[in-house]
Write a structure and sequence with these properties.
Elements: H1 2-18, E1 41-44, H2 49-54, H3 61-68, E2 73-74, E3 81-89, E4 96-105, E5 108-114, H4 130-139
Length: about 140
């Protein structure tokens, strides 16, 4: 019995020490596991430039609600202000946050402010200055 135990011990020791030898094992790469699926998270009211361009001073609250949708926050203490918020947390990329506050007086739209401006008020794209054009022409 002692002989069998000693033989088993020696065999186990030889097998474990063989892992320390200079013989290299064939290399293989582990299969890639699928990643966790993440969802895009949208919250609030979607706000577009087209919606903002449709807003005109003097519109009624119902007209504004038709264009913009129900406000996310309608302050009970200040019924003349509606707030629209939108956020998007994509599974990849940067998050997007937009906000617009709309103001009324006597149930009529008087203005708004936030991350959008009407296209009619947006500054035109900048054209190169004449000095820059002269320098470009001289280089040619």
């Amino acid at each position: 019995m002692h002989f069998t135990a000693r033989l088993s011990c020696c065999l186990a020791l030889m097998v474990s020490l063989s892992g320390c030898s200079g013989i290299s094992m064939p290399s293989f790469s582990m299969p890639k596991l699928p990643s966790i699926h993440k969802f895009d998270i949208q919250q609030g009211n979607v706000i577009t430039q087209e919606m903002i361009d449709q807003l005109k001073p003097g519109m009624t609250k119902s007209q504004v609600r038709f264009i913009m949708g129900t406000p996310l926050i309608a302050d009970t203490f200040n019924e003349n202000r509606w707030d629209y918020y939108y956020s998007l947390y994509p599974s990849e990329g940067e998050e997007v946050r937009e906000q617009v506050s709309i103001y009324f007086e006597d149930e009529k739209l008087v203005g708004f402010r936030g991350d959008f401006i009407p296209s009619a008020l947006a500054p035109p794209p900048a054209e190169p200055e004449p000095a820059e054009q002269d320098a470009d022409e001289a280089a040619e």
